[in-house]
Amino acid sequence: MFPKDFVWGSATASYQIEGAVKEAGRGMSIWDMMCYTPGKIANNETGDVACDHYHRFEADVKLMKSLGLKAYRFSIAWPRIQADGKGEVNPRGIAFYNKLIDCLLEHDIEPWVTLYHWDLPLALQVEHDGWLNKDIVSYFEKYARICFENFGDRVKHWITLNEPWCSAVLGYGLGEHAPGRVSKVEPYLAAHNLLLSHARAVKVYKTEFQDQGGVIGITNNCDYRYPLTDSAQDREAAQRSLEFFLAWFADPVWKGDYPQVMREVLGDRLPNFTEDEKKELVGSSDFFGLNHYSSMLASEPNASQLEELNLAGNGGMIDDQNVHLSVDPSWQQTHMGWNIVPDGCRRLLHWIKERYGNPIIYITENGCACDEPNKEIALNDTMRADFYKSYIKASGQAIEEGVDLRGYFAWSLMDNFEWAHGYGQRFGMCHVDYETQERTPKLSANVYSDIIAQNGVVEKV
Ligand code: PNW
């Protein structure tokens, strides 16, 4: 059984579900550009239509209600609010999110709103180098203020950034995500400006909108790392890997600076915070938002593994860490090839509890992709149903052990545009037929719905 007010929700993101990319004054985002560049996305698919949620949000909210969701986490598309990211406010963009928020509240579903889930206005990238330029901090500040002003009377849970690790590493390091850049230096710069932008938005909220009485935080993603063996070297490798992954973004927010090990390894490539910036960062998250999907084994690389790491030339991201990653052959894998290890979730929650002084934690995403070549197979998604049950049970155990976990959001409400993988990877608890746009709850939706109704995983005998 979970605590009485535990928040049960599901999550989506604007570009992955909305479609209507050219409607009602929306400007282009870096993801439109990425998708229109041949060869970047599986089958050259785009978010042009996606789940057509922009036109179907009312039915989608009814679907959420029928499943018993208490909360719904979605993101605002910055280019709907300001087409070029810095100019005029677009009233039609405001109107869309007003309608969505009102509809959720009418159905007693709490809106949890992410300000940035990767759809940066294209003009900010093309004219200002996006997250590489410190100017972004003041653009993001203004955008955040517009959102608090217009929606903050009804929205009481804000998330500034979704997974800045992905923006920095996949967007500016490995080139897999928009804006598709490959570099060993840029990820650290992008991360720096992402963190400063987060802190600035929080400062605006705390100083100008305190009377709205909401909470605001950042959501980071992290997989868990088990040491391959019990050796001190492997345990250090696992710890180092977690610091390069999660502490990179969480230490500045909870402790005021990057982890020491990153300073030592990266030298000049890791930017410095001024004393004022540190002050703005420390304590800038009311809760610890965590997106968690998988686990790996970490070890100190041997000579040939080290050579492999260096040859991979993976944007400096993996070779900087000096960690060899592998899998336990007994682990089941999802359609993304991600390992299903519920105990890793529990351990990561403890790692966060220890390192950051028992913060309030929300799992803002957790879920899995299944191989669903047709609707019939999709509807019988036993692997996903088991995935939810096992991860939720592991989370419940962590709570019993003292972790202050207050909520869980399943990714995702429905199948959607899975970034570079296009529509071939389905994460939804509801199936989407992309020809008819019909939504159908899968087995996992019903299982999750039962979990919500029972406030926990109750095994039927
Ligand atoms: C998250 N990785 O993305 C995002 O927040 C969602 O938009 C996405 O649909 C979901 O997880 C499933 O992928 C991630 O490479 C993308 O470690 C890549 C990674 C992690 C999360």
UniProtKB/TrEMBL annotation:
It catalyses: Hydrolysis of terminal, non-reducing beta-D-glucosyl residues with release of beta-D-glucose. Substrate binds at residues 16, 117, 162, 293, 411, 418-419. SUPFAM superfamilies: (Trans)glycosidases. GO terms for biological process: cellulose catabolic process. It holds the Pfam family Glyco_hydro_1. Gene3D superfamilies: Glycosidases (3.20.20.80). The keyword Iron does not apply. The active site is at 163 (proton donor), 365 (nucleophile). It comes from the Bacteria. Belongs to the glycosyl hydrolase 1 family. PANTHER family: GLYCOSYL HYDROLASE (PTHR10353), LP05116P (PTHR10353:SF36). This is Beta-glucosidase. It comes from Lentisphaera araneosa HTCC2155.
